[in-house]
Specification:
This protein is an alpha+beta fold and about 110 residues long. The chain has helices at about 5-15, 35-50, 75-85, 95-105; strands at about 20, 60, 70-75, 110.
Length: about 110
């Protein structure tokens, strides 16, 4: 699947058995050891604040060098169960990370961590 990153994300998202999926590159170092707990807590806060299902959100891990951009989106399995894929099939190799963040921003269901 070389050159088809989004197709790989869709495949892996459908196969995942965890509650949360993170779209990361292979060169990423996570500096916060509590990031998983913090992300799960933020998903809970978003659901409660907006009266939406738990998991109907996107919490992005932001790159320190580009802090205002949702570089590494975290989605819940609710997303794949609801939409059938991580991303629409039209995505080939890029654009998926900002798409996910923008999709949920329409419902005030995003956070850049």
């Amino acid at each position: 699947m070389y050159g088809r990153m989004c197709k790989s994300w869709n495949y892996l998202g459908r196969q995942a058995r965890n509650d949360f999926n993170v779209l990361l590159g292979d060169d990423i170092v996570l500096k916060d050891r509590q990031w998983q707990e913090n992300v799960a807590m933020k998903f809970q806060q978003i659901a409660e604040a907006n009266g939406i299902p738990f998991g109907a959100a996107c919490v992005a891990l932001c790159d320190l060098s580009f802090a205002d951009f949702p570089t590494f989106p975290v989605i819940h399995r609710w997303h794949v169960n609801t939409f059938g894929n991580v991303l629409p099939r039209q995505f080939i190799n890029q654009g998926g990370d900002p798409y996910l963040f923008e999709l949920y921003s329409r419902f005030n269901a995003t956070f850049c961590y």
